[in-house]
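Hi V.,

Quick status before I head out on leave. The structure for the redesign project is tokenized and pasted below; the design run finished overnight.
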């Protein structure tokens, strides 16, 4: 019997409620210049108090030394092995689903960035200065009006948040196995869309034609004068969390990617505002309807990528102020963690293990005296793969039956 089948067999429906609070890019690192992490420096008394009453550790989204993307990191948190071929899902589909786009079989979706290039065509900003969402909407309308089809393939464009948008290609014989055009660094030219196999050569040709047309349309823009394409992908077939764990899960997230990941694993996705207070209010308003709540906080990751430790600390402190509201709902299980680390000194995702705590009436507690990298490393859970947190949660919520006689 494979492990996932065992957990499915043992899962049972109860009235107990689980909350998974994910602060994106939560983890940090110490450096000689900055010998304490953002969690160690932030004023987070409520999270620290919760940690003293919890079981703590640090989780690895994939494995030692492996830096995860946001998709695999979240699939792991939801109890799916991120290395399983079945869930190797491109960012395009996740973003499209997160924007409530209705994908059809055969559609190829890709997540795009507006970007800035100089007169030589070299990238100077992969995120176009994080243009406001209103500007993204205007530019997407401009592209939509100018580029409706590439050859016989329909082009559907939908704005996301800030510099992000989604393009869906709809036509015959399209294959999403295309390499990204984002080189992940500045000072170089964007890459061409390249097919990974013979079946995807047509899609690569279509994508390169779209890039050329889009760059022509955007030529006169001050910041967003080019585009980058990532995560070409098609609809997956993934077993839902309800099937695997016998729960009624819901997602409270403001950014499309995370709404998309939640949608892929069968969560209901609630509409909520962009502020942290909006998300906790949405939790409160829907408390009676579900038994598993995924709450996603984005800007800890954004400030990490910007190399802004003070901004990251500010978000941590804002989340901390909402912990009393969460505890007043009396969840049977509270888990607090991140999907991955985004240390400001690195300005990127990293492989460093992420602080984790789980709180319940029966979880016990350990020697951790606060919620940060140093204290969680003292926890009894040690370092372990993220995809085990779901069965820990189920056990602490009384949702797993005994195995064997």
């Amino acid at each position: 019997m494979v492990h996932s089948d065992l957990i499915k067999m043992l899962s049972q429906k109860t009235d107990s409620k689980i909350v998974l609070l994910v602060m994106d890019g939560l983890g940090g690192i110490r450096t000689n210049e900055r010998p304490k992490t953002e969690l160690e420096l932030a004023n987070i008394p409520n999270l620290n108090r919760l940690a003293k009453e919890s079981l703590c550790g640090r989780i690895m989204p994939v494995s030692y030394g492996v830096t995860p993307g946001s998709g695999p990191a979240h699939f792991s948190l939801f109890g799916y092995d991120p290395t399983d071929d079945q869930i190797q899902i491109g960012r395009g589909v996740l973003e499209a689903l997160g924007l409530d786009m209705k994908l059809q079989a055969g559609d190829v979706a890709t997540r795009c960035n507006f970007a800035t290039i100089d007169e030589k065509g070299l990238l100077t900003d992969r995120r176009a200065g994080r243009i406001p969402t209103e500007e993204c909407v205007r530019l997407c309308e401009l592209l939509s009006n100018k580029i409706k089809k590439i050859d016989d393939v329909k082009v559907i464009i939908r704005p996301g948040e800030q510099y992000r948008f989604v393009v869906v290609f709809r036509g015959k014989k399209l294959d999403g196995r295309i390499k990204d055009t984002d080189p992940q660094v500045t000072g170089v030219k964007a890459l061409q869309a390249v097919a990974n196999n013979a079946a995807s050569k047509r899609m690569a040709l279509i994508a390169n034609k779209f890039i050329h047309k889009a760059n022509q349309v955007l030529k006169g823009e001050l910041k967003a004068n080019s585009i980058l394409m990532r995560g070409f992908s098609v609809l997956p077939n993934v077993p839902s969390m309800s099937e695997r764990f016998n729960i009624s899960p819901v997602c409270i997230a403001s950014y499309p990617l995370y709404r998309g990941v939640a949608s892929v694993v069968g969560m209901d996705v609630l509409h909520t505002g962009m502020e942290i207070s909006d998300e906790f209010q949405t939790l409160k308003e829907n408390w009676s309807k579900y038994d598993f709540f995924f709450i996603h906080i984005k800007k800890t990751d954004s400030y990490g990528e910007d190399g802004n430790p003070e901004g990251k600390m500010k978000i941590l402190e804002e989340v901390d102020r909402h912990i009393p509201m969460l505890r007043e709902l009396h969840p049977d299980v509270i888990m607090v963690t991140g999907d991955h680390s985004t240390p400001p000194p690195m300005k990127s995702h990293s492989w460093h293990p992420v602080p984790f705590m789980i709180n319940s009436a029966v979880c016990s507690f350990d020697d951790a005296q606060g919620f940060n990298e140093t204290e969680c490393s003292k926890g009894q859970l040690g370092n372990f793969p993220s995809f085990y947190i779901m069965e820990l949660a189920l056990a602490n919520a009384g949702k797993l039956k005994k195995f064997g006689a």
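Above is the designed sequence. The chain has two domains: 3-89+238-396, 94-233.

G. will cover questions while I'm gone.

Best,
W.
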